[in-house]
Every structure is written in structure tokens, then in C-alpha cells.
Amino acid sequence: MATMERLVDRVSLERRADWLVLAARLVLLRSRLLFPASPEAAIAAEQDAAAEVLGLRRWSLCGQPRPG
Fold first, then answer.
1. Cα–Cα distance between 43 and 26 in angstroms, integer?
2. Continuous segment of H or E residues that includes residue 62
3. φ, ψ for residue 62 (rounded to 5)?
């Protein structure tokens, strides 16, 4: 959070909010990958991770704001 405070004057609130949402999504996905509730949940988490990575790659190539 200290890093976010240093960016107040340099980065828009919307961009910082996007970063927080992305971080939360990645933490949730990582927890699902590390601690799946069942073998089926592990497979679903792997598929979701692959889709998330693909979406992030497309997003970074476009340079567009990521849809929530």
C-alpha cells in the first residue's frame, strides 16, 4: 500500500483501482491452484488460469484498459 501512496500524483485513481482488482483476482486464482477443493476444482482452476493468462496477454498487447 505504501507504493500506491507514492503513485497518487502520478497515476490515475482508475488505473490504481484496476491494479488492485487485478491483484485480487490473481491472489484468488493462485489460492485455487494451490489448494483445490477436489480434483475437478483443480482442473477448473487450471483452465481459469490459462484463460486469465491469455486475457492478460491480449490486454497488454492492445494497451487498452482491461474490462472488469
1. 17
2. helix 39-62
3. -80, -30
Could you tell me which of 66, 51, 61 has the C-alpha nearest to residue 19? Answer: 66
Type of residue at 18: D
C-alpha cell at 2: 505504501
Helices 39-62 and 13-34 meet at what angle, rounded to 10? 150
Q: For the whole model, what pTM was predicted? A: 0.65
Q: Which three cell numbers stand for residue 37?
A: 477443493
In angstroms, the CA 43 to CA 41 distance is: 5
DSSP 29-51: HHHHHHS-SSHHHHHHHHHHHHH
The tens digit of pLDDT for each residue in 13-23 reads 888 888 898 88
